[in-house]
Specification:
transmembrane; mainly alpha; transmembrane helix; rod-shaped; 182 residues; single chain; 2 domains; membrane
């Protein structure tokens, strides 16, 4: 019986045909055989199925990279447009608001009249030049709705970019090459 500490001694001759080769060399040869027959080493794969899945992975990766780049660019365009549109729309909304200084001055004049002359001497005053125009209400409502949709589009673009980043990192998954490509 051979010494178990002997690393150059032969392995079990019944299990391996390499009984005359030192043990370290046998382990290296077995490792090379396992790697050659596995799907990890795609370039040196011997069977046609492994070669097929290796080629499929390469083509699919190229296609995915192009799709990710195109979609990421589209999301950037949507974000830029939504940001610019929101800024312009906000400026438009601010411009269509009634002047708060005029409203405050009109209310102060009414308070002074009540204090000085009593509640019966008040002349009704128009608070704003925009009051009473139904088209102004609809214009502002449309502006607020379009601002909301613009912000919703920006949110969708941000979520889309996050999903693209997740897809890019998780697209290969785990398992054998055939399982990952299916």
């Amino acid at each position: 019986m051979s010494d178990p500490r002997d690393t150059n001694g032969p392995l079990d001759p019944a299990r391996t045909p390499y009984h005359h080769i030192p043990r370290n060399t046998q382990l290296l040869q077995q490792t090379v055989e396992v790697l050659q027959n596995s799907t990890i080493a795609v370039e040196t794969a011997k069977d046609p199925l492994s070669k097929f899945w290796g080629a499929y992975k390469k083509v699919a990766s190229e296609h995915d990279d192009e799709m990710l780049e195109r979609c990421n660019g589209n999301m950037d365009i949507v974000l830029i447009f939504a940001g610019l549109f929101s800024a312009i729309n906000t400026a438009f909304i601010i411009a269509t608001q009634p002047d708060p200084v005029n409203t405050t001055n009109t209310l102060l004049v009414q308070l002074i009249q009540i204090t000085a002359y009593g509640p019966t001497s008040i002349q009704p005053a128009a608070l704003s030049s925009f009051a009473g125009y139904p088209s102004n209400f609809w214009t502002q409502a449309l502006a607020y709705v379009s601002l909301g949709f613009s912000l919703l589009a920006a949110l969708g673009a941000v979520l889309g970019k996050q999903w693209l980043g997740y897809y890019k990192t998780k697209r290969f998954g785990r398992g054998s090459l055939a399982d990952r490509c299916k």
